[in-house]
Every structure is written in C-alpha cells, then in structure tokens.
Design a protein that fits this description.
Length: about 130
C-alpha cells in the first residue's frame, strides 16, 4: 500500500447546496439534492480509481486528508463547507468509517480554468 495517495476531484457543492427539506412518510427530512448525489457518484469513482492504482485499501486508522482548493473566482468562500460530502464519499474507499478522517484545509487559490479539490491522504503516524 502506498504511503500517501493523491486524487483530484471536481469541487463539491457546498453544504448550503447539498440538502433540501422534503416530506417522507409525512415527516420532514433533509435529503441530498440531485447535484450532491451526482457529485458523490463521480467523486467516488475517481477516488476508487486513485486508490486502486496506489494499492490503497480502506483502513481502520486515523487518516489525514489534506485539502487544497482551487476556486473558480475570487468570491469569498468557506473551505469547511466542502467537508461534509467529502467525508462521506471517501468512507469505504479511503477509511472504513469517516470518524477516522482528519480533514485539514491546507491552502486555497483561484484557478479560473480548472477549479478543483486536490486531496492527499495518508495514515497518521502516531508517536
């Protein structure tokens, strides 16, 4: 298994665009939007491919997930709004359960031509 794995994903929808309120059996519930479901499907395929190429198997250890965001423009955004879907989509691919994910926002920039989320993950070395 590789010591670290890198994967490039399209930007996920922010938490404000991930859920809608819906009635289900007469009860209000928050459900994923079609945009969020679509992003999760494509992100899972890309992450699975990167893990297979690197020989990475889901682990039951703390995994550091370093995030570098390239926004499409200079609007003010909160990088932590990207965490919810990302943590969920990597479950079963990078780690067994997202409780093991240590998401770290490392940097952000603007790349008008190729907005993206660059992710590097590795098992935390505990001393």
């Amino acid at each position: 298994m590789s010591a670290s794995v890198h994967v490039e994903l399209p930007l996920p929808p922010t938490s404000n665009h991930c859920y809608v309120n819906a009635l289900h059996h007469g009860r209000r519930q928050r459900v994923l939007t079609a945009l969020a479901k679509s992003w999760m499907t494509s992100a899972a395929m890309l992450a699975t491919g990167a893990c297979r190429r690197a020989g990475w198997k889901p682990v039951e250890d703390k995994v550091v997930v370093e995030l570098r965001v390239s926004w499409p423009d200079h609007r003010k955004r909160d990088t932590s709004n990207l965490h919810k879907l990302l943590g969920d989509v990597l479950e079963g691919i990078v780690y067994v359960n997202d409780r093991y994910a240590l998401l770290r926002d490392m940097d952000y920039a603007v790349d008008r031509k190729r907005p993206r989320l660059d992710i590097t993950f590795y098992v935390l070395e505990e001393s």
